[in-house]
Amino acid sequence: MEPSTRRSAPGLGEVIGRLLGETRQLVADYAELGILDARRAAIRLAWILGTVLVAAVLVVTSWMGFVAASIVFAWGRGASWPIALGIAAMVNLIAAGALGWLTLKLAKELPFTALLRQLRGRAPEPPQGLRRNDPA
Taking the domains of the chain in order of start, what are their residue ranges? Predict the structure, then answer.
């Protein structure tokens, strides 16, 4: 029988090599996890956008049905076709104007403005209701 041979302690180069190998594998594992999460998020985003699109089509067709029913109702009550169609068009224009106003209100603050302001070193802006020249 051979005498048991003791394994000598690993040298500094071997320890650093193992450390670098483990670090590389850890980074690769995190990168793979990030890629898989991004893929899953992209698939979910596609499903969300698809369902929102279908819902928007259903809302539009419901609105058109409501407008058509209102026109038929007004015509049944004695209104002429041109007046009923004009009223329906006016309601559509008012609704479109309200949505346009809401869109402009939402678009006034662009995305990432706080981040860009921080990166540029600017002071934060006061809340919407309080301006610097307003007596508060």
Answer: 14-120
